[in-house]
Specification:
By secondary structure, the chain is an alpha/beta fold. The chain has helices at residues 20-24, 82-97, 135-141, 151-158, 215-224, 239-246, 259-271, 285-294, 316-333, 351-363; strands at 3-5, 8-14, 29-31, 45-49, 55-61, 66-72, 105-110, 119-124, 127-132, 164-169, 176-182, 189-193, 196-200, 229-233, 251-256, 277-282, 299-304, 334-344, 369-375, 394-400.
C-alpha cells in the first residue's frame, strides 16, 4: 500500500519488534529482523508503522542487515527541499568550528549525524568527494524529484566555488571513482590542515583520500612532539609523521605496507620544508616491531593507528588479540617518559572493549602506565547520543614510566 505524504508517494513497512525506545533515543537504523516481510526497492522512501498502527518514522529501504535508515520522524520534516536544507545546515556547523583559511579539508556531511543517512561528503580544497554507504543511500540521495532532491546539485548550490565533485563507490577491485560535476582533479591535491600541507590522492587513496577524522589527533601529536624520536605505525601517507616533524620532533620513522602511500609521505615531508631525519619502512607492522625490539631500539613517542581489525562482530575476538599485541609491543619500545597514542577505528570494538585491551596489555608490561587523555573524532565528524555505532573512533594517550 502506498500513500501520498508531503507531496510524494510513500510505501509502508510494519514492525514486528518493539524498537520505539531505541528510535526515540535517536538511533537512525531499523534492522531487517525487526520488520515484517516487506516489498520495495533499496532507496525507496517508506513510512515505518509501529505495532499499534501509529507512524514511528520515515526512512528509505536498504539492501543489507539494515532494513531501513531513518530520514525523518514526522511527515512535515520532508516538506520542501529537505536535502538542500540539511546540506546547508551541515556546512554551517562545520564553518563554526573550522578556520577554512588554515584547514581546507574536512568532512562536510557525516551521514546519520547530519540527517543524511548513508551519505558522506568530504571537501579537499576545491573538490568535494561523495561516498555512499550502500545501494539504498545511493539511490535515495541521487533521486531527483522526490522528497530528497539529488545530492550533487545541493552540493554545487551550497558551495558554488567548487571546481569539481567526485563520486566514489565500492572497494578494492569494485571501486569506481568518477567526476559527476565540473573538472577532473589533479593526480594529487595539496590540502592544508592547521597550516600543514598534505598530499591527497582523491582517486586511489583510502577512504576519500585522507583520514580526515584524525585531524585533531594529528594536531595533538604536533603539540607534544618537540625533541622526541617518533614512530608512526600504519602511517599511510604520513599525516602523523608530518605533524610530528612540524612540532619539532628530532627524528621520525613511518611504517606501512603500502609503498605508494609512503612515497606520498616523503613528498609531503619535503613539501613542508622539513629537514629532520625521516625514514620510511615498507614493512608489516608486527614484523617491524619484532625486528626493532631485537635490535634494541626505543622511541619517545609512538602512534599506533591500525586499519579496522574488526570489520564485523565475528572478527572481534581476533581484533581484541591484535590490539593487545600491538599495545604490548609499543609500550615495551618506549623510553621512560615516552608517550603512546593508541587508536582504533573499529566500530565493533567499542570504547569499553578497546580500553580493556589496553588494561590487559598493561598487565603484561612491567611498567608504570598512565592515561593522559581520551578523545574521539573532531567536530566535523559529529555523532548521535543514541547511536554508538557512529562513535567509532577511539584515541587514548598514555605515558610510560620506568
Amino acid at each position: 500500500m502506498r500513500t501520498e505524504s508531503a507531496g510524494f508517494p510513500l510505501g509502508k513497512v510494519r514492525l514486528k519488534k518493539d524498537v520505539r525506545a531505541s528510535i526515540d533515543a535517536g538511533h537512525p537504523w531499523i534492522y531487517r529482523d525487526a520488520l515484517q516481510a516487506s516489498q520495495g526497492e533499496p532507496g525507496e522512501l517508506v513510512e515505518i508503522i509501529d505495532r499499534d498502527g501509529s507512524l514511528l518514522a520515515i526512512g528509505y529501504l536498504d539492501d543489507g542487515v539494515i532494513g531501513v535508515r531513518i530520514v525523518a520522524r514526522k511527515r512535515r520534516e520532508l516538506e520542501g527541499d529537505v536535502m538542500l536544507r540539511r546540506v546547508q545546515a551541515a556546512l554551517a556547523q562545520r564553518s563554526a568550528f573550522i578556520d577554512r583559511t588554515q584547514t581546507t579539508a574536512f568532512r562536510w556531511v557525516n551521514g546519520e549525524a547530519d540527517q543524511l543517512p548513508g551519505v558522506n561528503v568530504d571537501v579537499y580544497g576545491s573538490w568535494a568527494v561523495v561516498r555512499f554507504d550502500g545501494l539504498g543511500a545511493e539511490r535515495w540521495a541521487s533521486a531527483a524529484g522526490s522528497a530528497a532532491s539529488s545530492i550533487v546539485p545541493c552540493i554545487v548550490k551550497t558551495m558554488p566555488e567548487l571546481r569539481g565533485v567526485l563520486l566514489r563507490k565500492g572497494r578494492g577491485e569494485t571501486k569506481e571513482v568518477r567526476v559527476v560535476h565540473g573538472e577532473e582533479p589533479p593526480a594529487l591535491v595539496v590540502i592544508e590542515e592547521h597550516g600543514m600541507k598534505l598530499h591527497a590522492d582523491l582517486r586511489h587513496g583510502q577512504k576519500t583520500g585522507l583520514f580526515l577524522d584524525h585531524r585533531e589527533s594529528r594536531k595533538r601529536v604536533r603539540d607534544i612532539a618537540k625533541g622526541r624520536s617518533v614512530l608512526n605505525l600504519y602511517g599511510y601517507t604520513g599525516g602523523f609523521s608530518i605533524a610530528a616533524g612540524l612540532g619539532g620532533a628530532r627524528e621520525v620513522s613511518t611504517v606501512d605496507v603500502a609503498k605508494e602511500a609512503l612515497l606520498l609521505a616523503e613528498k609531503s615531508w619535503a613539501e613542508n620544508g622539513l629537514t629532520q631525519k625521516h625514514t620510511t619502512h615498507v614493512e608489516d607492522v608486527p614484523k617491524f616491531l619484532e625486528r626493532v625490539r631485537e635490535e634494541g631500539k626505543s622511541y619517545d613517542l609512538i602512534v599506533g593507528d591500525p586499519p579496522s581489525f574488526a570489520p564485523n562482530e565475528a572478527a572481534v575476538p581476533n581484533a581484541m588479540r591484535a590490539y593487545r599485541s600491538l599495545h604490548r609491543a609499543c609500550l615495551r619500545l618506549l623510553r621512560p617518559g615516552g608517550i603512546y597514542l593508541a587508536a582504533s577505528c573499529s566500530s565493533h570494538v567499542d570504547r569499553e572493549r578497546f580500553d580493556r585491551t589496553i588494561r590487559e596489555a598493561v598487565e603484561k608490561v612491567p611498567r608504570h602506565v598512565r592515561v593522559l587523555e581520551r578523545w574521539g573524532g573532531a567536530a566535523d565528524h559529529p555523532r548521535l547520543p543514541g547511536f554508538p555505532e557512529g562513535d567509532y573512533l577511539k584515541n587514548v594517550l598514555l605515558s610510560v614510566g620506568d
